[in-house]
Amino acid sequence: NGHGNGARGALIVLEGLDRSGKSSQCLRLVSYLKGLGFPVESWHFPDRTTSVGNMISSYLSNESNLDDRTIHLLFSANRWEKRSLMEHKLRAGTTLIVDRYSYSGVAFSAAKGLDLEWCKAPELGLLAPDLVVYLDIPPEKAAERGGYGGERYEQLEFQRKVDQHYRTLHDPTWKVVDACLSMEDVEEHLRQLAKDCVSSCQNGKQLSQLWL
Ligand code: NYM
Ligand code: MG
């Protein structure tokens, strides 16, 4: 594997509302870890490049309409179709920095009124992240940042509901970073959290499964 010593890579997930800064921070973190010589890749869900991802993308851009449960299961299927590659990469020593994961899946669908446990069920058995960082921003502040791209869900009222459901999902292992800090300060927090997580995985932390 990447270090020739059996060390696996870390599965690091960034979560947060739209415009919380996840995508920029993921890219910065990937370059930083690369610079330190770690094998690392940047991933993003939804992965719009697959055929399931294409259906999701056309739903998000309002080119198609789907029943709420149907789109929920497509988002989940989009993670399942990447699961074996994900496991392979991690075991081969590559750290994955993932922009959104099952928590987005549950928070966004639950915000439409779907039952939380029903939303979680199809995620059971996906790989559990070694670290979840929540970029915390009040929905009003995120909306002020502008640049909502006009996709489905990118509205203040809806993001307020998503925010509530993210709070329900929070568990004590999540690391919460104040997304209202400067880009540099958020970046610095992420660097420390990621380095600690990568070391714990190198030191034998086992891969586990989500919500089982
Ligand atoms: N989203 C994302 C979901 O509703 N369920 C999911 O499982 C995932 C991964 O898709 N508003 C929503 C959240 C976003 C939208 O994501 C597109 P992005 O990160 O803007 O491409
Ligand atoms: Mg978006």
Structural notes for this entry:
The protein has 212 residues and is an alpha/beta fold. It has one domain (11-202): Rossmann fold (3-Layer(aba) Sandwich). It is 48% helix and 12% strand. It has 8 helices and 5 strands; from the N terminus they run E-H-E-H-H-E-H-H-E-H-H-E-H. A 5-stranded parallel beta sheet has the order 2-3-1-4-5, sandwiched between helices. The longest helix is centred in the middle third of the chain and has 24 residues, at 68-91. It is globular. 3'-deoxy-3'-aminothymidine monophosphate (NYM) binds next to helix 4. 3'-deoxy-3'-aminothymidine monophosphate (NYM) binds at residues 18, 45-46, 60, 75, 100, 104-105, 108, 153. Belongs to the thymidylate kinase family. One of its GO terms (cellular component) is cytoplasm. Keywords: ATP-binding, Kinase, Nucleotide biosynthesis, Nucleotide-binding, Transferase.
